[in-house]
Amino acid sequence: MAVDMTRPDGHPADPGSWLLDRIDAREHWLTCQIEQTQAEIDTLSARLGELSEQVEHLRITRKTLISLAEEDLAQAEPFAPPAVPAHPAYQQILTVFGEAGGSLRARDMAMALDLPLTRNDIQNLRAKLKRLAGRGILVETEPGLFTQPRP
């Protein structure tokens, strides 16, 4: 590939000055690239600083919350188990759970208690199971599936 080394006025250019002009142009282009890259670095450094600050704030928040929770636990009264409703049906339900040792649905509980499998009886039993779950005596692991909490 031949390089045109003529000046704009058509006269042959001096090979030394032509080469120096090319070096100057390349140096100028590289200087522009350096400035653009430095601007990108400055932007990324600022973003890195912001993200680091946010992470530090989260760490401080976590420490504060754990500290407050530990203080609350230290000041709290000893754990009292939730009160079971006085109605004998609730005692029967808990007895079945103790014997079953696993999760049960309202229909399974009705069968274990020898109740009629009518819609109304199953709904009443489901309401009792939900009441026990609301008090923390049972746990509803998925909709309609109840079990005793693990110690």
Task: Kindly summarize this structure in a few lines.
This protein is mainly alpha-helical and 151 residues long. The protein has helices at residues 15-75, 88-100, 106-112, 119-134, and strands at 139-142, 145-147.
- Outline the biggest β-sheet: 2 strands, antiparallel
Q: Treating each run of at least 4 consecutive H or I residues as one helix, how many helices?
A: 4
| Sequence of secondary-structure elements | HHHHEE
Sequence of strands across the biggest β-sheet: 1-2
Layout of strands and helices, then pairs:
Blueprint: H1 15-75, H2 88-100, H3 106-112, H4 119-134, E1 139-142, E2 145-147
Antiparallel strand pairs: 1-2
Structural notes for this entry:
- With about 150 residues, this protein is mainly alpha-helical.
- Helices cover about 65% and strands about 5% of the residues.
- The protein has four helices and two strands; from the N terminus they run H-H-H-H-E-E.
- A two-stranded antiparallel ribbon has the order 1-2.
- It is elongated.
- The model has no long low-confidence stretch (mean pLDDT about 85).
